[in-house]
Design brief:
The chain is built from 17 helices and 16 strands. It starts with a strand and ends with a helix. Pfam families: Amino_oxidase.
């Protein structure tokens, strides 16, 4: 009998498997797809010679994650960190978020720059303590209470900047609102504001990284760590119920809903019903482009960053995001990544891979390529003439690619205040499914979405303590 079985080979599942294997336990990982990586896969589409990131493309949290450092991902992956972390196009104006916070403030101008740097400077100065606090369960006794207090106060300041003072400080507010809008739905609460603040602080702390070779490089690095410690990974192996697995402990890197199905009859009914009824954020429609040359931005500085936000003012971004809860928009907020500017392994010589998405209603089948193309064209006239290929993945298609992305929701469940704390339940060990040997270790558990591997890392650590009395 295997000591540990892991269902799902996304970053969290692989991180969990690596932690267990490093503890000396026998580990088997089961992945339904033919390739590992989950939402961190990079591969060709429809016969293309280019390689596309199927889910994530740019990785702020990978630079800050304890799991990524301890599990040797940074030793195996070449992370490219642009000096310009991201930029936000308002209309004819652009706001730049340089790695250097003071440069960012100076270029924003007197009022905007002061508002932005005052908000972020205390957090950037404490970025390691901040990440250690936020990439752990919120119910854990904080190792850095002063940093948590500063973050709480800054979150209130961020909410005010984005929702009250955006007309006074339009460029600063837009920079920050674009980060907050990575969390779908346009909520005005502290969870949305806090997530945006953390992303912005990361931009000026460790930066927003592009892994050479695509997101797949992260998954492959974690898999190498599993295998180097004796673990085995089985692809093309779909598990329908935990009863199929001969293992003492089972860790699920799946959606909460699939977690309920896989453990049917094995966990308390109340918890099973809660998992099955997980609240969801809007989905996303993703378009992969191959261009004959780089995007011809009106503002040439945009060619210095891997990430461009398109959506107008903070108020316009907020309206578009809130509308995505119920309908598609003609002018959605876009996140555009241009990784091949920094990593020439993605496409044939001279060509560029572009990754762009917007939020849409959960489970939508809408093809948003026309709207996405138009938004980019407005900021880069001639863009559409350069398109060699385009591959559309609607929200429903994201779930087909990766069952954990229910309805195309990239967040593992709504990331409002309730969804952050009750993830999936209020507990010091939220990964434990209240039944011996069963754990959920996906983005549906703390610390939530993004490619950091921390849910798997922390869930596996909790499993080692509870099941094997191993503390590390």
């Amino acid at each position: 009998m295997t000591s540990v079985a892991v269902v799902g080979a996304g970053p969290n599942g692989l991180a969990a498997a690596a932690v267990a294997a490093r503890a000396g336990l026998s580990v088997d990982v089961y992945e339904a797809n033919e390739t590992i990586g989950g939402a961190a896969r990079t591969q060709p589409l429809e016969g293309s010679s280019a390689k596309f990131d199927l889910g994530s493309a740019v990785h702020p949290m990978a630079m800050l994650s304890t799991a990524m450092h301890e599990l040797n991902v940074h030793q195996r992956v070449d992370f490219i960190v642009p000096e310009l972390s991201f930029a936000h196009v308002l209309d004819e104006r652009t706001a730049y978020a340089w790695r250097d916070l003071e440069r960012t403030g100076a270029e924003l101008g007197a009022g905007d720059g002061q508002a932005y740097t005052r908000l972020l400077r205390p957090l950037v100065q404490r970025i390691e303590a901040l990440s250690d606090t936020l990439l752990n369960p919120l119910l854990k006794m904080p190792a850095h209470p002063l940093t948590l207090g500063l973050f709480s106060a800054s979150t209130l300041g961020g909410m005010a900047l984005k929702d009250i003072f955006s007309a006074r400080y339009p460029r600063a507010a837009a920079l920050y609102a674009g980060c907050a809008a990575h969390v779908a739905g346009g909520a005005r609460g502290p969870a949305n504001a806090g997530a945006g603040l953390f992303l912005a602080a990361a931009a000026h702390g460790q930066g927003w990284a592009v892994p050479r070779g695509g997101s797949q490089a992260i998954a492959d690095a974690l898999a190498a760590e599993v295998i180097s410690h004796g673990g085995t990974i089985h692809t093309g192996h779909k598990v329908s119920h935990v009863a199929e697995l001969q293992a003492k402990t089972i860790l699920l890197d799946t959606s909460a809903e699939d977690g309920a199905k896989l453990t049917s009859g094995k966990i308390p009914d109340k918890l099973a019903k809660k998992l099955a009824k997980t609240r969801r954020s809007p989905g996303s429609c993703l378009v992969h482009f191959v261009l004959n040359e780089p995007i011809p931005w009106k503002d040439p500085v945009l060619s210095q960053t891997s990430t461009v936000h398109l959506g107008g003012t903070a108020a316009q971004v907020g309206r578009a995001e809130r509308a995505a809860n119920r309908r598609t928009s003609e002018h959605p907020y876009l996140i555009v990544a241009q990784p091949s500017l920094f990593d020439d392994s993605r496409a044939p010589a001279g060509e560029q891979v572009i990754w762009a998405y917007c939020h849409v209603p959960l489970g939508s089948t809408a093809d948003m390529s026309r709207q996405i193309t138009a938004q980019i064209e407005a900021a880069a006239p001639g863009f559409s003439d350069l398109i060699k290929e385009s591959h559309v993945v609607p929200a429903s298609g994201l779930e087909q690619q990766n069952a954990a992305l229910v309805g195309g929701d990239l967040s593992g469940g709504t990331m409002d205040l309730l969804g952050s704390v009750m993830r999936p339940r209020l507990s010091a060990e939220p990964w434990y499914l209240q039944s011996k040997g069963l754990y959920l270790v996906s983005a549906a558990t703390p610390p939530g979405p993004s490619v950091h591997g921390m849910a798997g890392y922390l869930g596996a650590k909790a499993m080692l303590r509870r099941e094997y009395s191993i503390s590390s």
